[in-house]
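Contributing new records

If you add data, match the layout below exactly. Sequence lines come first and carry their own label; structure lines follow with theirs. Keep one chain per record. Anything else will be rejected by the validation script.
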Amino acid sequence: MGKVLQEIDEALAEFLRAQRLFFVASAPTAVDGMVNVSPKGLDGSFAVLGPHEVAYLDLTGSAAETIAHLRDNGRICLMFCAFDGPPRIVRLHGRGEAVPLGDPRFDALAGHFADIPGARSVVRVDVTRIADSCGFAVPRMEFASERDQLVRWATNRGPEGLSAYRAAKNARSIDGLPAFETPG
């Protein structure tokens, strides 16, 4: 059933890239802080950078819990489930860092992804544990299509509107932890 893998080899990388949906979990250091799980998707928003390194394009959204938690303690887990084909769940545990838009490293990292409007950072993860399990209880589901609402919303807001939105909505987590720096 379950096993721990030593690295992300090409076969595993292919499985990870083929999943249209993955989940990101993080938590603050404070024991009374809110644990967060976020669904992620959109074709071209995930990349395998090496045998122990992955990244995803973080898009502007209603909150910034993962970013705040990474700033607080760096802990992160990405979970991929096979909704078609053979049953399988892969969890990538590690230490993450958000490289925000405007950081000198952002453009080089963003080159690994599709050009998706609304990017606010790249979350880079040093993978310290790779767990593979059966997924026997995960339902089979058929992919219908990508949703385009987030891309349309980001395009309509434009860079200045997105910056203002992030300043208003993404500066702090629901626990009050700092997430994105606001322009001074």
